[in-house]
């Protein structure tokens, strides 16, 4: 008798430079973070905190000054939805939690050329199930490595996709099929 093996779903595969020297690929396999070598074979990387994040939903890899970072969203302790920032040594640098009951529906990190954010700052746009777009600032040169909430935009719709268009504009895709175009002023 054959045993049923459910399909393995691999999403969000991104190139990742581990510890500034080892090229690998990072992806979400059935909602779990997995590393792959250049031939596609699974590679084990040790990171205890990553195992505590349940239901990983999305992933983004960012390179800044030859360092690789990644953002992953998920649920922690089955109580709150959060976004986590890791460096290329798999050390968690920062996290941002939504209030209980709300979930992160989309996020995207972009470099922003704006006097309000400061030099070398990145802006992480985070959409929540509450219909609010949050602006988080992160400066890789700041030793505190915090994700600082710098603004909110109530859009009144569930955001499913965030796409930067330029360093001062972005598009939002909504669950109802609408598209919103926004510009920083």
What does this structure look like?
The protein has 185 residues and is an all-beta fold. 3% of the residues lie in helices and 58% in strands. The strands form 4 sheets. A 4-stranded antiparallel sheet has the order 1-2-3-4, with no helix packed on it. Strands 5-6-7-8 form a 4-stranded antiparallel sheet. It is globular. This is WD_REPEATS_REGION domain-containing protein. It comes from Hymenolepis diminuta (Rat tapeworm).
Features:
185 residues, mainly beta, Neuraminidase, four-stranded antiparallel β-sheet, 1 helix, 15 strands, 3% helix, globular, WD_REPEATS_REGION domain-containing protein, WD40_repeat_dom_sf
Number of helices: 1
The span between the termini is: 64 Å
Tell me the number of structural domains: 1
User: What is the arithmetic mean of pLDDT?
Assistant: 80
Provide the succession of SSEs.
EEEEHEEEEEEEEEEE
Low-confidence stretches: none
* E-strand count: 15
The CATH homologous superfamily corresponds to: TolB, C-terminal domain
What Rg, in angstroms, do the CA atoms define?
Answer: 17 Å
The proportion of strand residues reads over 45%
Classify the fold: give the CATH topology.
Answer: Neuraminidase
Which architecture per CATH? 6 Propeller
Q: Would you state the CATH class?
A: Mainly Beta
Major β-sheet profile: 4 strands, antiparallel
User: Residue share in helices?
Assistant: under 10%
Structural class: mainly beta
Tell the overall outline.
globular
Give the oligomeric state of the chains in this entry, treating copies of one chain as homo and distinct chains as hetero: single chain
Strand order of the largest sheet: 1-2-3-4
């Amino acid at each position: 008798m054959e045993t049923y093996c459910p399909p393995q779903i691999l999403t969000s595969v991104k190139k990742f430079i581990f510890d500034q020297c080892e090229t690998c690929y990072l992806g979400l396999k059935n909602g779990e973070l997995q590393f792959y070598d250049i031939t596609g074979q699974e590679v084990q990387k040790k990171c205890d905190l990553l195992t505590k994040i349940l239901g990983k939903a999305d992933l983004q890899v960012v390179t800044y000054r030859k360092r690789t970072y990644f953002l992953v969203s998920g649920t922690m302790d089955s109580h709150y939805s959060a976004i986590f920032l890791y460096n290329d040594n798999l050390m968690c640098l920062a996290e941002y939690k939504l209030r209980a009951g709300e979930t992160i529906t989309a996020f995207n990190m972009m470099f922003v050329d704006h006097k309000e954010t400061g030099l070398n700052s990145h802006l992480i746009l985070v959409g929540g199930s509450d219909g609010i777009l949050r602006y988080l600032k992160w400066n890789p040169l700041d030793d505190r490595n915090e994700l600082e909430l710098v603004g909110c935009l109530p859009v009144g719709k569930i955001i499913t996709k965030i796409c930067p268009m330029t360093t001062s504009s972005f598009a939002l895709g909504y669950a109802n099929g609408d598209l919103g175009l926004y510009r920083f002023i």
